[in-house]
Specification:
alpha/beta; Rossmann fold; 7 helices
């Protein structure tokens, strides 16, 4: 794993032996960020990374100019792994918190511009997570973007879903009220 673009471009993640992570491949990550650059401004944005794992995606956001990053993961080893990277790169605007992502989403107080979630593919509360975020008042009334990485076998029926990109068995679903309305009206 490596950071593809921006100020941390070329940073190589050390081998991580955690059995509870499924790092996004460089090809899928590059495709995700190519799509993002056409859809939503990353520079200056506040990003929330749920089920952060190794921190790979969140760090890519920071590298590309995100103002701040909050990484949430319930696994202690993942938290420690991300903290080592944060210290190694001397990143000040990266908050790393050990917390259940679903519970965190329900009580979210600081509203991010971009929410990225990469839960385990067998996460049984996935549709509940999508509902919690896409039906939250702060999401409905603002131009926020929610990106969900998931298995290609899942289908979402949400009025905010406006784009789905697939790379092998990995899919990224993009949710945003404004973009979904524009798609419906065109």
């Amino acid at each position: 794993m490596r950071i593809i673009a921006g100020i941390y471009k070329g940073y190589q993640f050390k081998t991580y032996g955690g059995n509870n992570t499924r790092p996004t491949t460089d090809l899928a990550k590059e495709s995700l960020f190519n799509s993002l650059h056409q859809l939503y401004p990353i520079e200056g944005s506040k990003v929330l990374d749920l089920f952060a794992g190794t921190g790979n995606i969140g760090l890519e956001f920071l590298s590309r100019g995100a103002e701040s990053l909050i990484s949430i993961d319930a696994n202690h080893a993942n938290i420690e792994f991300m903290k080592k990277i944060k210290n190694e790169l001397e990143i000040k605007h990266w908050q790393i918190t050990k917390w259940d992502a679903l519970k965190f989403s329900k009580q979210l107080s600081e509203v991010p511009d971009i929410i990225f979630a990469d839960p385990p593919y067998d996460f049984v509360q996935l549709h509940q997570l999508v509902d919690i975020i896409t039906k939250a008042e702060w999401f409905v009334n603002n131009n926020r973007l929610f990106i969900l990485e998931h298995s290609d076998k899942l289908i979402f029926d949400s009025p905010t879903l406006f784009l789905k990109k697939q790379y092998g068995n990995t899919c990224f679903s993009f949710f945003n009220w404004t973009a979904a309305k524009e798609k419906t009206n065109s």
